[in-house]
Sequence to fold (377 residues):
Amino acid sequence: MTPAIRITNLTKTFGSKPALRSVNLEIPAGATVGLVGANGAGKTTLIKCALGLLRPTSGQCALLDESAWSLSAKAKGRLGYVPQVISLYPWMRVRELIQYTASFYASWNAQLTDRLVREWDIPLDDRVRGLSVGQKQKLAILTAVAYQPDLLILDEPAASLDPQARRQFLQLLVELTEPQQRTVLFSTHIMSDLERVADYVAMMQKGQIIYFGSLEDLKDRTHLSLEDAFLQMQQGVANG
Amino acid sequence: MRLRIEPSSGMPISRQLADQIRSQCVAQALKPGDRVPSVRELARELAVNQNTILHVYERLTAEGWLETRQGSGTFVKVNPGARAHKIAQTQSLLAQLRQAVQQARLLGITSEELHDMLSASMNLETESDTQVERRTL
Fold:
């Protein structure tokens, strides 16, 4: 099976500052992958290059069998993205924003939308501008999953959610990732979330992937919590 | 089925769940013929990857604790190995306790203090899952 995301020798520099150094990563179709790394490790840059939102300095990013930089409309329709900094039309009412987004997608699942609005307490009649950060995050997640994309990429989706909302989000993620049906890549600082829902973990440090592998293998081998394994691995790389 | 996950333990979640289900079978909290939740139901309830739950069920089926009946779900099976499992688990528990006692001696902890610590740990055990979850979140 072709990987859902294939990143080859990806380098990205901002001015003279390297953000990604020769990154190679293949994400198998149907897998849920958690991306971890300290602030500034390059997670968001990697995600943006993988999505074709940033042009690589060198190297290639392919997703859903196409080059990320020249993605077809069809491939974009199979792709869901929740950015770290959420920008939604502030003047729209929540109901309007949902209807507007739905109008772009034939595969929009109205039943799932109604259920999430109910379960997540999303205020349909409020203006987007008046929503709290957490509510905006919920709305961004809703509009990214409701058209049932084959590939879902989320940049710190749970960062502003309270514990209850985070649990609901994880439950949704688990539900959406029926074995072998959908590929998910999400970055997070919350290791316990990652341990619950991910098949694989990718660890980043200073613009490089320092580990990619199955979460279960990692634990079986190290007998450490993910957090401790990550800290140890970071230390190991730092000490050369 | 009451299951508890410690995501930040060094033990893979699949092993945590398999251990708990085995123990519940041994303790008869799960009796032969009981239906266990489907992979999908349990994954959602625990907010754990469906592949992980699938892996646990496959492993427990291979070991003879569970059986899948076509079209009607997964059930607890009569397991002739349950007694042997309990004996082995008890022995391992005893070894752990001996080790703890030895460590307590080294630290100068009295027998009374140790008993108090044991009671406190047992009280911790009866906390509701929600409380434990909240702590681990």
